[in-house]
C-alpha cells in the first residue's frame, strides 16, 4: 500500500471502518485525523500530521480525555500494534457516537462511587 493511498489529493478520504466520505477540514482542528461519524482513525502518524508511521492499523476509539487547558480528545488504540494515541475532537464529530463512546467506557470501568468503601 502506498503511504497516502487512503487520502486523495485534497486530503479527503473514505473511512476504512464505516465507508463514509470524510472532508479534510474540520471546525476546531487544523488536521483531520479521524472519521467524524464512527470516530475511527488509521495509525499513520508518528507525530501529528507527519504520515510517517508504517503500521497503518485501524485506530479504534476507546475513550475520551479532557486535556490540560480544557480541550477534549479521543483516545485511540491501534488494533494491529496496540499503540495508544490521543486526537483532539473536531467540531463536526457525531454527538451520538461521542455519547456512546463515553457510556461504553463508563460501563467498562463501572461507577467510581461503586468502588468506594462503605463509611
Description of the molecule:
The chain has one helix at 95-109, and strands at residues 13-14, 21-22, 41-42, 58-66, 72-78, 84-88. It has one domain (13-107). The chain contains 1 helix and 6 strands, in the order ββββββα. The chain is globular. With 119 residues, it is α+β, with helices and mostly antiparallel strands. The strands form 2 sheets. A 4-stranded antiparallel beta sheet has the order 3-4-5-6, covered by helices on one side. A two-stranded antiparallel sheet has the order 1-2. Mean pLDDT is 85; it is low at 1-5. Strand 1 (13-14) and strand 2 form a beta hairpin.
Instruction: Tell me the β content.
Output: 15-25%
**Mind summarizing the main beta sheet?**
4 strands, antiparallel
Gyration radius (Cα, Å) is 16 Å
SSE series:
EEEEEEH
Strand order of the largest sheet: 3-4-5-6
Task: Give the rounded overall mean pLDDT.
Answer: 85
How do you describe this structure in short?
With 119 residues, the chain is α+β, with helices and mostly antiparallel strands. 13% of the residues lie in helices and 23% in strands.
Question: How are the secondary structure elements laid out?
Answer:
Blueprint: E1 13-14, E2 21-22, E3 41-42, E4 58-66, E5 72-78, E6 84-88, H1 95-109
Antiparallel strand pairs: 1-2, 3-4, 4-5, 5-6
Descriptive labels:
119 residues; alpha+beta; 4-stranded antiparallel β-sheet; two-stranded antiparallel sheet; 1 helix; 13% helix; globular; disordered N terminus
Amino acid at each position: 500500500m502506498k503511504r497516502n493511498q487512503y487520502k486523495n489529493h485534497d486530503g479527503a478520504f473514505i473511512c476504512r471502518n464505516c465507508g463514509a466520505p470524510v472532508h479534510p477540514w474540520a471546525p476546531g482542528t487544523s488536521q483531520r485525523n479521524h472519521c467524524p461519524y464512527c470516530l475511527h482513525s488509521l495509525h499513520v502518524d508518528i507525530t501529528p500530521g507527519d504520515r510517517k508511521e508504517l503500521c497503518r492499523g485501524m485506530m479504534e476509539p476507546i475513550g475520551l480525555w479532557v486535556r490540560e487547558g480544557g480541550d477534549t480528545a479521543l483516545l485511540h488504540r491501534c488494533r494491529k500494534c496496540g499503540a495508544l494515541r490521543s486526537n483532539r475532537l473536531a467540531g463536526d464529530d457525531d454527538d451520538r457516537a461521542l455519547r456512546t463512546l463515553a457510556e461504553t467506557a463508563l460501563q467498562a470501568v463501572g461507577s467510581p462511587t461503586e468502588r468506594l468503601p462503605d463509611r
